[in-house]
Amino acid sequence: FMFINDLEQCQWIRQKFETPGVMKFTLEEKRTLLARMVRSTRFEEFLQKKWSAEKRFGLEGCESLIPALKTIIDKSSEKGVENVIMGMPHRGRLNVLANVIRKELEQIFCQFDSRLEAADEGSGDVKYHLGMYHRRINRVTDRNITLSLVANPSHLEAVDPVVQGKTKADQFYCGDTDGNRVMSILLHGDAAFAGQGIVYETFHLSDLPSYTTHGTVHVVVNNQVTSGNQQRV
Fold first, then answer.
1. Could you say which residues form the signal peptide (predicted)?
2. The whole model's pTM is what?
């Protein structure tokens, strides 16, 4: 919003969205964020150096997405969430698979190099369409959490209603009537989120009793907007 020339409008948005003191972290929290940021950055640097000619939809310019997602998951786990279902476009998917879902790196790398042997046969689809399901211990909360990244086609936002349906189904079958144990996270590009299309059509179902998932976290990612060395997520 900083491109808006009207100072009064900027201040209104800032007061609505930027809570004073929210960016004050303990030393341990700073170390955790730094470690996650380094993992995110180094992953992109390695792929760029090793397979520079491969199409991979890298996260350069928005590496802060990884610590942001992991913090959302940590806080959700603290509140009792046991299952997080995510949907996202291509941009940054490999990084999310590696550093958030914790897909084995050798499984990711063998998709770049045909000489490497994959641990599983796979679907034959391109690497930035594939999803992942993984149950593990959250290191911050020491609680079990299941992370799902839903596979999606080239139509970037087609996955949105699929994620909502999967979330609703999991809530139904585990008896989660208030959305306290199963939640969804949707990632969007800035242009796709603002456009009138499947994103808003999905929004329109958000409060219907038979469709609601009791809230979704939406993360809008734009790696083209920078201010100094700050990435926008």
1. none
2. 0.82
